[in-house]
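Quick question, first post here. What does this chain look like in 3D?
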Amino acid sequence: MARPAMIHRFAALFAAAALGLAACDGAQQTTGPGPTGGQPTTGPTEGAGGPITFLSSQFGPVEEQEKVRNDVLANFDGEVEFVAFAESAQFQDRLQAEAQAGSGDISVLGALHGDLDPLAADGLLSDLSDVASDLSGLGISDEYLELGKLGTGQQQYIPWIQATYIMVARNEALEYLPDGADINDLTWDQLTEWGANITTATGERKLGFPAGEDGLLHRLFQGHLYPAYTGLVNTAFASADAVTMWTWLKNTWQYVNPQSTTYGFMQEPLQSGEVWVAWDHVARLINALEADPEGFTAFPVPEGPRGRAFMPVLAGLSIPTWAPNPDGGKDLIRFLLQPEQQVATLRSLAFFPVLTGELPGDLPPGVRAEQEAVAAQLGSDNALPALLPVGLGDQNGAYNQVFKDAFQQIVIEGQDPAAALAPLETQLQEVFDTSGAPCWAPDPVSDGACQVGG
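> Answer (accepted):
Ran it through. Tokens below.
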């Protein structure tokens, strides 16, 4: 099935940004020409109109919030209150309360593409075409900016940061790779064999996944396993190929550390040695790679029968129509898009820049390791990007819960996959009927609410 051209461009641009970072070997600059020679890298430093409340759906954990305040926002002369929540529901509650009231404190909103899309549809985002023009010399791609228009004729958000999910292994695990396996070109079946080899040799289950309450395991299903096995996600939820995928995971779980159901971030069990091979978000793996860059190997996610599926993550910056300080908000957006702040975000939080040109600053070895894994993943001949959910609004949590319930029932409780998926498919359809959200790539975009049966 042909995938939308925009998705191909999205993956190519992510790869270009990641590969461009490999050339960043010089000392970090504070002034001078931007990546394309058009704009100075310093940008505005004073927030107009008083304090700025910056509400973000990203960087919710306390340690990440502190890195934003201390490393990313430190040189901004305006007064910024950075607000982020560990739970997405809290972010949505704060946002919806102000949106419904038509007033509030938020002057800058940082959120995922899918979170911003329904706000644009309701006319709640300000036009940032002037900010896009101001930043035109920094190398933000035209395609990213087009995504930021969210189907309108105006710039609804400015692309801010991007990330994805990869795999990391402790180097002692490498000797147990299946015969003839290439770590940069694994299959999911080979991952199972790898886990079995480790268990046979050590007597311990050393594969690991973030299946705890704060983990992102649902993204493994939505962005990796479903498209890798079915070529789709929602429209193939209970298909025969989906049953094959769940059966694979059910069989593989015997080699997964049983503590995985408590893991939120995989960097800790990797560092402790509880886990030798893990999948997670790049921002939740970086501490292990930074603490011991010689002791770990980062590599692309495995491929399935339909391709090497992965989930690119794009977040943007916008200004709500009720913002009390829109001019200060625009100053902050300009500041956050400067190369120094993009590099600071990469260094501290392992989110990749959206600028495609060469950036100032040396990359730490752990970040470079992730960059190389991301580039290899995106450069795969059978790369199959799967977008984050779009347009679900307050049904986002319910959508994720369907996949979490499938995992609980099939893998943890041992239910028959086909029997478990049938009623869950009905629940998934209810999510789409309630939200009205159309299908998104790699499923064909639908006219009206997505129909999960195809």
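The two ends are 13 Å apart (CA to CA).
The mean pLDDT is 88.
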